[in-house]
């Protein structure tokens, strides 16, 4: 079973991922990690980025600082970067799904909805957390200001949008134990 895990920043997706991995032996694929990995030597994305942005190569590696400074406030350069990294990330995620023998595979990605990845998932799970709790978590755990937290949240899909596409709903506003109970309940009704 391939689960697509959705939820806004601060909703606690990592709590769900950790529990699925530790207790159910799930194979976890996080698109952020995949995106970083494919920007290293040996991957096609690295080769394409080296051609598109030769000035960011230092000691045979991509300097993320240089790359960030080039694409910051330059929409054309950012579009070029995204046109290379987004399809490359999706392709690598699909390869990993295909190669996995795990009975549960979880794909966590901000690109999930609208990227085509959602069509490769058997189910979409939405991890919800009450708005003020999300802000508190971002302030406490990541050191963001309330203003920055609110801005990030407002630039993500709404709860309604996530919920519209979700097959399963997990409320992660409260304790870790309650979240785990919900996961156990969902999986007790599945064949995986």
UniProtKB/TrEMBL annotation:
InterPro entries in the cross-refs: Depp_CoAkinase, P-loop_NTPase
NCBIfam families the record matches: dephospho-CoA kinase
Gene field: coaE
Taxonomic lineage: Bacteria, Bacillati, Bacillota, Clostridia, Eubacteriales
Annotated GO biological process: coenzyme A biosynthetic process
EC number: 2.7.1.24
Species, as recorded: Eubacterium ventriosum
Record-given protein name: Dephospho-CoA kinase
Subcellular location as annotated: Cytoplasm
Catalytic activity: 3'-dephospho-CoA + ATP = ADP + CoA + H(+)
């Amino acid at each position: 079973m391939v689960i697509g895990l959705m939820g806004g920043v601060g909703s606690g997706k990592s709590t769900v991922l950790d529990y699925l991995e530790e207790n159910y032996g799930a194979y976890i694929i996080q698109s952020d990690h995949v995106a970083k990995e494919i920007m290293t030597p040996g991957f096609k994305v690295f080769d394409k980025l080296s051609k598109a942005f030769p000035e960011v190569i230092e000691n045979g590696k991509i300097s993320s600082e240089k790359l960030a400074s080039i694409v910051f406030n330059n929409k054309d350069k950012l579009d070029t970067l995204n046109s290379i990294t987004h399809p490359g990330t999706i392709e690598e995620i699909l390869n990993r799904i295909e190669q996995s023998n795990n009975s549960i595979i979880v794909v966590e990605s901000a690109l999930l909805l609208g990227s085509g990845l959602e069509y490769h998932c058997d189910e979409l799970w939405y991890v919800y957390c009450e708005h003020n709790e999300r802000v508190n978590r971002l302030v406490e755990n990541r050191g963001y200001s309330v203003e920055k937290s609110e801005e990030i949240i407002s630039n993500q899909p709404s709860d309604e949008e996530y919920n519209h596409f979700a097959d399963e709903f997990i409320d992660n506003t409260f304790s870790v134990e309650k979240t785990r109970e919900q996961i156990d309940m969902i999986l007790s009704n599945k064949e995986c």
